[in-house]
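To: structure subgroup
Subject: Chain for Friday's discussion

All,

I'm putting the inputs and outputs inline so they're searchable in the archive.
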Amino acid sequence: QVQLEESGGGLAQPGGSLILSCAASGGIFSIVAMGWYRQSPGAQRELVAMIDSGGGPDYADSVKGRFTISSDNAKNTVYLQMSSLKPEDTDVYYCHGKIYVSSTRLNEYWGQGTQVTVSS
């Protein structure tokens, strides 16, 4: 069973930085894409950044130039470096993965979510 384990997050001041990590484990055949979404109470979950095996990373317009997504394929881990944080970046951040568990079976997985709070 594939699991996504998140770490990082917490409290940061405006203008500060945080790093999120997400490691995929268990029954992985291959990883198509991994990324981060965020969600506020009562709102839809929105894409923050994603990186896939076929091309460059994608970012939400609101985080371009401030957030950087990267991956360590050997460790099945994706990172989100968040800089120049703003109060409106406060949300629960969820790791997401599109992962093959066999040569033909592609599933989507979510992490449990990690809180990011930007406040002075």
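Points worth raising on Friday:
The mean pLDDT is 96.
The radius of gyration is 14 Å.

D.
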